[in-house]
Amino acid sequence: xxxxxxxxxxxxxxxxxxxxxxxxxxxxxxxxxxxxxxxxxxxxxxxxxxxxxxxxxxxxxxxxxxxxxxxxxxxxxxxxxxxxxxxxxxxxxxxxxxxxxxxxxxxxxxxxxxxxxxxxxxxxxxxxxxxxxxxxxxxxxxxxxxxxxxxxxxxxxxxxxxxxxxxxxxxxxxxxxxxxxxxxxxxxxxxxxxxxxxxxxxxxxxxxxxxxxxxxxxxxxxxxxxxxxxxxxxxxxxxxxxxxxxxxxxxxxxxxxxxxxxxxxxxxxxxxxxxxxxxxxxxxxxxxxxxxxxx
Length: 295
Known about the structure:
It contains 15 helices and 5 strands. By secondary structure, the protein is an alpha+beta fold. It has 2 domains: 3-95, 434 Repressor (Amino-terminal Domain), CATH 1.10.260; 112-173 and 223-287, Beta-Lactamase. It has a 5-stranded antiparallel sheet with strand order 2-1-5-4-3. Helix 2 (39-46) packs across helix 3, helix 2 (39-46) packs across helix 4 (66-75) and helix 12 (196-208) packs across helix 13. It starts with a helix and ends in an 8-residue tail after the last helix. GO terms for molecular function: DNA binding. This is Helix-turn-helix domain-containing protein. Residues 110-274 form the MmyB-like transcription regulator ligand binding domain. Pfam families: HTH_31, MLTR_LBD.
């Protein structure tokens, strides 16, 4: 990946999203030729010269101080994820050409003690790494994410969303799922640019999915913490669940994600049906050892 180009495209796309009104600047010229702020406006807001900001926006960010990056982040109204990404990009550019220690890849599994914790939970739970591989789950988690586990390759959320046609029906808001997943991968690519498996995944998605190329070009970033997801589950129907993400101590890049529904809600009733549905599905697979996909 071209780190300087990443810096340039990120700053340009962020600048285009901020209007003069948002930062308290008067808009004298109604016929603006650029969306969002001009470079000179960002420079003024950040307290740097236009020449220096232009240099930064061209990707020459190596050596920029933390105070300058903070000022640019404030001028562009960056959120926490975007600010962290800007600092990640600056570190990556500064290290370009220097001898760098290759970062360890995300683990491909979990300790047996972690699996026991998952199995003790009474809600669906999965463990994913920074590349969006599903590396572990409890029985309810496997049942909830059954379409992802029903693949020939190891389950990967990003690969399923962008390359498996079933995803468009499984995710109630598939465009949102797409954009969020692309932004998560963009965040990780800035944080860990030497992850060869992540680079290969991004290359695969770019080559095989026009939707991914479109979403990737937005240069959006996202940190997954908590929220709501809606699925059209093939066995129990519409399910709306709250999710919470917990980073695993001592396991860089691994997170436990739990899913829960409001007690007494239709989604809670649907989740309660998962064990029986999964059991009947497993029984059917025993009768059909050929491995054909069940609906």
